[in-house]
Amino acid sequence: MSIEKVLEKVDAIEASNLSKMEEMKSEVAASVDAAKAEIEEKFNSLEAKVASINVPEIMRAPAKTIRQDVNRMVTEQLRQFAKGNGRVQSELKVFESVDQYDAYMKEASTLTGSGAGIGGRTAYDPVFHRMRLANPLRGTSRNVSTDGSTYQFRAKTGNAGPAWGYAIQNNGAATTEATSIWQLNLKDLNVQFPIRTAALDDIDGLEANVVDDMLVEFSQAEGASMISNDDQAGSTTTSTGATDGLRGLDSYPGANGSYTGGTISTAAFGSSGTAASDGMHSLATYDQLTTNAAGTANNVTFEDIITFLHSLPQQYWSNGNKFLINPQMLSAIRGLKDSNGTPVFERMSPLVYEGIVGKLLGYDVVVNAYVDAPTAPGTAATTSQYPMFFGDFNRGHTIVDRLNMVLRRYDQTQPGFITFYGEKRLCSSVVDPFSIIRYRSTATGA
After folding, report:
1. Does the pTM exceed 0.70?
2. Measuring CA to CA, which of 168, 185, 308, 318 is 20 to 30 A from 212?
């Protein structure tokens, strides 16, 4: 065999050995890593088990107290008495001295009551907020949404003028077909307020209650504005928004210029256009037979309710009609009695409608505390009180909302504070002034 072939075989054997050595190194390294991982896993598991063991706290000898000394002395005397033979009578010495007695009484005095104020546990009731009256009109009126900043209402008005006879265009009166439009800007209602982060951390459930109450407070504000606000220039209803607020039901004209008991005025569409004063329709308004004037007595009668109910145009009579009424007015109506002293509505439908809210003359009642009280005692003035409305609110009144309400939580706008911000935009309007009638109890309330 030649030297070249021998060298070639030696090289091959060396290469093979080197390859096997590398494989063995890789296998050893892998085995070592696996062993390390297994050992680490076992150590972690052992640590977890050790941590889960409930180790009792170190028992510490209680601090020495006068009560403990007295108890030990009395116990020792009782033990000696039990060991003795003469167990007939024994005088026990409870206190070593007057000073020990005084110390015992002072020490014991803090232990005769509860743990309140001296380290006892304090439990907490869940945080809550008082209830607010959300806007009752939300469940009565028609609600629509928009992504615009203004909203326009359109109504077809006028008459075609039909007449009897075969001749074409034989109009008995002139055709007055037209439209009436009015446009409202969506009003803005917003609030921002900071709360300390420490308070939010310390009081469980505070943030959820703050947000929930804020949302109902928004509804409360819009509920008051939709009834009593006057959105016209120079209005004085600043508490409900004034020119920045909604168009309230009380602000619509239509009532008789002078109070005329037992009569009702006439409804009509307001002016057409896009000015802020357009769309102020006239609502048919019934004047109570006997005005409440500026006094405290409510003079409503059963005849008033019947006349008021039947003053709604017949074409608007439907089962969906509702009374929108102040709770004081509802109380006065349900308290009406006949000449025998029997409650009128109890006699008409005994035990049919229970509770505060039910039906009145067959129609649903929506109680709304934002509606005017029937009386306004004080110095006589020219203030009208409208404690009740009746009609088809789904047809006659519309609430327009911007699609989304803004609710934001800003972290650390000031050091240590979280700032909450809420904003909503909406408007409201009487749409069909003929479908709702209004009740006036006085025009001279203060």
Report:
1. yes
2. 185
